[in-house]
Amino acid sequence: MSVLNPLPLSRIRPDVQAMHAYVVQNADGMVKLDAMENPYRLSPELQAALGQRLGAVALNRYPGQRIADLKAALQRHVGLPEDFALMLGNGSDELISLLALACAVPAPPGRAKATVLAPEPGFVMYAMSAQLQGLDYVGVPLTADFELDLPAMLAAIARHQPAITYLAYPNNPSANLWDDAAMDAVIEAAGASGGLVVIDEAYQPFAATSYLGRLARYSHVLLLRTLSKFGLAGVRLGYLVGPQTLVGQIDKVRPPYNVSVLNAEAALFALQHQDVFEAQAQHIKAQRALVLEALTKLPGVRVFPSQANMILLRVADAQKTFDGLRARGVLVKNVSKMHSLLTNCLRLTVGSAAENCQLLAALEASL
Q1: Considering the entire predicted model, what is its pTM?
Q2: Is residue 332 a contact partner of residue 37, using CB atoms and an 8 Å limit?
Q3: CB of 33 within 8 A of CB of 348?
């Protein structure tokens, strides 16, 4: 019987050993409404066409020209401003990590480390990527209604001089868009302190507006998007756009060939059929309106506004309601322990019409 040698484990950073891994819930046999995925699959005809495309990919070669083709297609898709560049990532998670890596400037003696700042509750990867790349992280609580606390944000920027300030637009898990004037004030304050601002538009396909049209006003603002909510969560493709001078520097820390030829070909195929995915987004928005209306009629439920494909609600007992939903075959996300502002909150993904009917029936029975 072998004896466990403790020395290899001691080589793992203590802060990593103390971390909790990102947990994906087991959804076998469940109506899966916990991860903001598009509920619609491709038609059999499009599945066959995509299969032919992927079957012809040269898997024996490293990614090459098709990556350039994908970047050009995405630039056309977003209408990239002049003198702006686009960078690809293996999901937006990788881009968040690369941003932290690029900005992890070693602290001079007696000075604080570079800092990442974001409103909270927000996307967990902002804090995790900062920690793993050796930056400090500062979370600034939102208001009770999940709006930007502008005085608190401005005070935190003045105090910490963050290298990166994240603004999710819409935010996860609160699903709301923030006030334009407050956004602009934060962006200008972060720029005046010499920092970058990253506007994370992961849920843009379901939002009423985008910050893209205002991006050219600033030389320190980057826009982060993903094709996961476009309908390609399994493809793992994100992209970062911004001034060429900034994106060019961040691109230096990107691993070579970080996007596979299969991912690139699938994304190119989807962009060539973007009308299909845009129609799916319209269906999801229509279903969101119906679900929001139905939720407001349930006693003891507080529903928050949504501009994403998720809905945040507060119930009397989040764990009991979550367990009740799960027992009835519906999986959602219990976010009640993520932050004090989320006490007794659940986050629901907007699914298909049939899935949403099952959700509402199970929720009413579980309350």
Answers
A1: 0.94
A2: no
A3: yes
Q: Name 216's Cβ contacts closer than 8 Å, sequence gap at least 6.
A: 81, 84
Hey, what are 24's tokens?
A: 């994906």
For 156-212, the pLDDT digits (tens) are 999 999 999 999 999 999 999 999 999 999 999 999 999 999 999 999 999 999 999
Residue located via tokens 């910490």: 160
Token couple for 312:
């945040």
By C-alpha distance, which of 315, 227, 213, 325 is closest to 267? 227
Q: What would the pLDDT profile of 68-77 be if each residue is shown by its tens digit?
A: 999 999 999 9
- Beta carbons of 223 and 91 less than 8 angstroms apart: no
Own/partner pairs, 295-303, CB within 8 angstroms, 24+ separation: 295/360, 295/363, 298/363, 298/364, 298/367, 299/367, 300/367, 301/367
Q: What is the pLDDT of residue 112?
A: 79
Which domains, ranges and CATH numbers included, belong to the chain?
A: 6-44+275-366 (3.90.1150.10), 61-272 (3.40.640.10)
Alpha-carbon dihedral angle through residues 95, 100, 102, 105, given to the nearest 10 degrees: 180
Sign of the dihedral through C-alpha 78, 81, 82, 88: negative
